[in-house]
Amino acid sequence: MRKTIVLGLLLMSTVSLLGQNVSDTIEVRKALGVIFLQNGKKLAPRNLLEITKSNAESYNEMKKAKSNFDVGNIFGFAGGFMVGWPIGTALGGGEPNWTLAAIGAGLIVISIPFSSAYSKHAKNAVGIYNNGLKQTGHNNVEWKLGLTCSGVGIKITF
Predict the structure, then answer these.
(1) Does any domain span residue 18?
(2) In a domain, 90, yes or no
(3) Which end is more exposed in the chain, N or C (fewer Cβ atoms within 10 Å of the end residue's Cβ)?
(4) Exposed, middle or buried: residue 7 (CB in 10 Å: 0-12, 13-18, 19+)?
(5) Is the dihedral of CA 43, 48, 51, 55 positive or negative?
(6) Where does the pLDDT of residue 16 fall: very low under 50, low under 70, confident under 90, or very high at 90 and above?
(7) Nearest to residue 124, comparing CAs of 23, 28, 22?
């Protein structure tokens, strides 16, 4: 009976120890662009910036990525508006300003290198962050069976 209780307690402690291992790694997927996921949730650049604060090197790289993302979005949205307005005017039967559309197309082209730089820096930041987790997140568990003041006991060291 005593062996069954000790074995049951030992199994329960092992199960609870394994249940505490949560993966905080960030997954990178390619779709229409690059998507970052953590625990099944899609992460925006501001979320990535917040998550990487715990790793200084990764955080600095992500700050570069976020600034490229912001500048690229400004050029891209402005260019999209400038292209869309004349197209909408033409579809509506008015006289479109094709010079405005050409300038907008130029702004969209300017946004492409910023988008590419964002992806490069963000992937690098995620790689640094994930490597930092693997180095610090894996603790060796040491089990020792021995005598204690109240009898035989198990000492678990993390």
Answers:
(1) no
(2) yes
(3) N
(4) exposed
(5) positive
(6) very low
(7) 28
Tokens for 78? Answer: 């402005």
Q: Locate tokens 């505490």: which residue?
A: 20
16 found inside a domain: no
What domain count does the chain have?
1
Residue 101 has pLDDT above 70, yes or no: yes
Of 17, 19, 37, 20, the closest CA to residue 28 belongs to 37
Measured in Å, how far apart are the chain's first and last C-alpha atoms? Answer: 30
Question: Cα torsion for 79, 83, 85, 91, to the nearest 10°?
Answer: -160
> 145: domain range?
23-157
CB-CB contact of 26 with 37 (8 Å):
yes
What does the pLDDT look like over 22-71, one tens digit per residue? 457 888 888 787 888 888 889 999 999 999 988 899 999 999 999 999 99
- Kindly state the average pLDDT of the residues 12-21: 50
> What stretches of the chain show up as alpha helix (H) in DSSP?
2-19, 45-51, 56-91, 98-137
- Tokens at 126, concatenated: 């995620």
When mean pLDDT is compared over 21-25, 121-125, 131-135, the highest value belongs to 121-125
